[in-house]
């Protein structure tokens, strides 16, 4: 069983590589929760299906800082993405690990550029 920081880094690496099967394998099968300013999921399969569609905008993930407190890992990140133009999105991600898998992810970032994509 990997420690929480290793699991969180493996998850980020899988998302960056667009390897959604590996990302899914790191997530809990039960009681999974994902929250961000633009989406919420309570099912890991639905979350990964969403990521496989929207994750193509991710070009690179830069880890600026990590903090670990038992089963909790907090990363200060920069997501380098391509929407209509290349952008660097500052993001904080809090991951909680239970039973050797990630059961909770909370992401905080300025969602304004993403909301503009979906406004009528």
UniProtKB/TrEMBL annotation:
* Gene3D superfamilies, per database record: 3.10.450.50
SnoaL-like domain location, by residue?
Answer: 10-104
Under the heading InterPro entries, the entry gives: NTF2-like_dom_sf, SnoaL-like
The source's domain of life comes to Bacteria
Taxonomic lineage of this organism? Bacteria, Pseudomonadati, Pseudomonadota, Gammaproteobacteria, Chromatiales
Q: Which organism is it from?
A: Ectothiorhodospira haloalkaliphila
Q: Name it.
A: SnoaL-like domain-containing protein
Pfam families the record matches? SnoaL_2
């Amino acid at each position: 069983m990997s420690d929480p920081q290793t699991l969180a880094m493996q998850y980020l690496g899988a998302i960056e590589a667009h390897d959604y099967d590996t990302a899914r394998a790191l997530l809990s099968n039960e009681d999974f929760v994902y929250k961000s300013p633009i989406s919420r999921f309570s099912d890991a399969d639905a979350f990964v299906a969403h990521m496989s569609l929207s994750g193509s905008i991710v070009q690179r993930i830069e880890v600026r800082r990590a903090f670990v407190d038992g089963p909790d890992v907090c990363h200060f990140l920069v997501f380098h993405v391509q929407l209509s133009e290349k952008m660097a999105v500052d993001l904080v991600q809090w991951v909680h690990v239970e039973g050797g898998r990630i059961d909770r992810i909370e992401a905080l970032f300025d969602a304004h550029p993403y909301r503009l994509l979906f406004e009528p």
